[in-house]
Specification:
Layout: H1 9-23, H2 28-63, H3 65-79, H4 87-92, H5 97-111, H6 116-127, H7 131-141, H8 150-173
Helix pairs in contact: 2-7, 5-6, 6-8
C-alpha cells in the first residue's frame, strides 16, 4: 500500500474538495456544472485557432516546405555549429510539440542518443517551447489580438536555445 500512495492522491483531493464545499454550504454539483459549461465554451472559442495551427503544421510537413526551409537555413545553422539533422525539428518545435517530438524520435533512432546530434536534439527538446502554439491558444483564450513583442521574443528565445544547445553540448562533451 505504501508503494502506490500516489494513486490515492487524486481521489482524496476530490473528496476533500467536495467535503469542504459541503461544510461551507456550497452547492457543489451546481458549481461543477457551471465550471464544466465554462470549460466547454473555452474549447469552442479555441477550436478555430487550434484547427488552423494543425492545418498549417500538416501543410508544412507534407508539402516539403519544411525541407526547403531547412536547406535555406543550413548556412546559418552551420555557422552556429548546429547539426543540420536537427534543423527540421528545431523549425517545427515552436509550432507543434507532437510534430517535433516525432522528428526527435527519428533523430534518436537514426543517430543514437549518445551521438552529438542526439545530444543536441535532446537539449533542444528540453529547452524550447511551442511558442506559436502557446501564443495562439493563450491569447485566443483571453481575446488578445495584438501579440506585440511576444512572438518575436519567444522565437528569439527558441533560436538562442538551439544555438546554445549545440554550443554547450560541444564544450561539455568535447565533440
Amino acid at each position: 500500500m505504501a508503494d502506490n500512495w500516489g494513486s490515492y492522491v487524486l481521489p482524496l483531493m476530490v473528496v476533500g474538495i467536495v467535503a469542504f464545499g459541503l461544510t461551507k454550504k456550497v452547492k457543489v454539483f451546481d458549481c461543477f456544472m457551471a465550471g464544466a459549461k465554462k470549460g466547454l465554451h473555452t474549447v469552442y472559442e479555441l477550436m478555430p485557432s487550434i484547427t488552423g495551427l494543425v492545418v498549417a503544421v500538416t501543410m508544412l510537413k507534407e508539402s516539403g516546405a519544411m525541407d526547403i526551409l531547412s536547406d535555406f537555413l543550413s548556412p546559418v545553422t552551420s555557422f552556429f555549429g548546429v547539426p543540420e539533422e536537427i534543423t527540421p525539428m528545431a523549425l517545427l518545435s515552436p509550432i507543434s510539440g507532437g510534430g517535433s517530438l516525432s522528428l526527435f524520435e527519428s533523430v534518436l533512432k537514426t543517430y543514437g542518443p549518445d551521438s552529438f546530434v542526439g545530444q543536441v536534439a535532446s537539449v533542444v527538446m528540453g529547452s524550447t517551447d511551442t511558442t506559436l502554439y502557446a501564443v495562439t491558444v493563450y491569447y485566443a483564450a483571453v481575446n488578445i489580438r495584438n501579440t506585440r513583442h511576444t512572438l518575436l521574443s519567444g522565437l528569439t528565445a527558441d533560436f538562442m536555445s538551439l544555438v546554445l544547445s549545440a554550443f554547450f553540448v560541444r564544450i561539455t562533451v568535447g565533440q
